[in-house]
Write a structure and sequence with these properties.
It comes from Iris pallida (Sweet iris). With 279 residues, this protein is α/β, with parallel strands linked by helices. It has 2 domains: 183 residues, Rossmann fold (3-Layer(aba) Sandwich); 82 residues, no CATH class. It is 43% helix and 15% strand. It is built from 10 helices and 9 strands. A 9-stranded mixed beta sheet has the order 1-9-8-7-6-5-2-3-4, sandwiched between helices. Strand 8, helix 6 and strand 9 form a beta-alpha-beta unit. The longest helix has 25 residues. It is elongated. The N and C termini lie far apart (49 Å).
Length: 279
Amino acid sequence: MASSSSSSSSSSSSSPTCLRIGIIGFGTFVQFLARTMLKQGHVVVATSRSDHSDLSSRMGVKFYRSVGDMFSESDRIDVVLLSMSILSMADVVRSLPFDRFGRSGDLPLFVDVLSVKEYPRDLLLQVLPEEADVLCTHPMFGPESGREGWKGLTLVYERVRIRNQDICQKYLQIFETEDCRMVELLCEEHDKMAAKSQFITHTIGRVLSEMDIKSTPMDTKGFQTLLQLRDNTTKDSYDLYRGLYQHNRFAKEELEKLELAIRAVREKLLDVPNGKEHS
């Protein structure tokens, strides 16, 4: 069941006020999140397959060539933020050097920001050490929608396995401080809703792209909305769209419903009663 949440009690007063956050996968979206984390005073370090060292330096983020290097320093990392493509997550997580992450019982909180939720939850529970805490999140906004601030924008999350409530709450406070709408939701419920909304939105946008629709001198407002939908969805990589389908078990059903709906509309168009064509 969905619920709005804004606070929970801390269980450890010894943890620092600011977090040291290690980001794995330093793409555009997580760079956007990192700027607000830095603004709030958190320490951010990062690693990625691509070399983002110049950009990281300008942002005030220390960049490492590998995950192993990022964890080789003595400073503890409180949160590991996983921000890679849905399709590459399994390979990345299984390659993590868990022996460098700290002593058993002193592991960081693992947080993902993927657009599907059951898949990363199950993967992290399967691969991570049992002592590692897991928080699954989906910020329902990005650099465009959050350009003027995060107030009123939604963060969906599930506390999958949390022992250190203090670290978990301090991470969630990053979003609470920006006045986000905090929605605590089971991963299964998230994926059901996302298949009916996000996946269908992307599907319609991709269909419009395949149709190669173009602006005309007589565009209606409705058609302009369709063009905008196409442009917004095709800005994202096809790997993201493929991941929304392959790793959300409810997406196949919604695609089948869409195909059936198109057939039903076509049949209604062809089923014109005799003598009523011009009525």
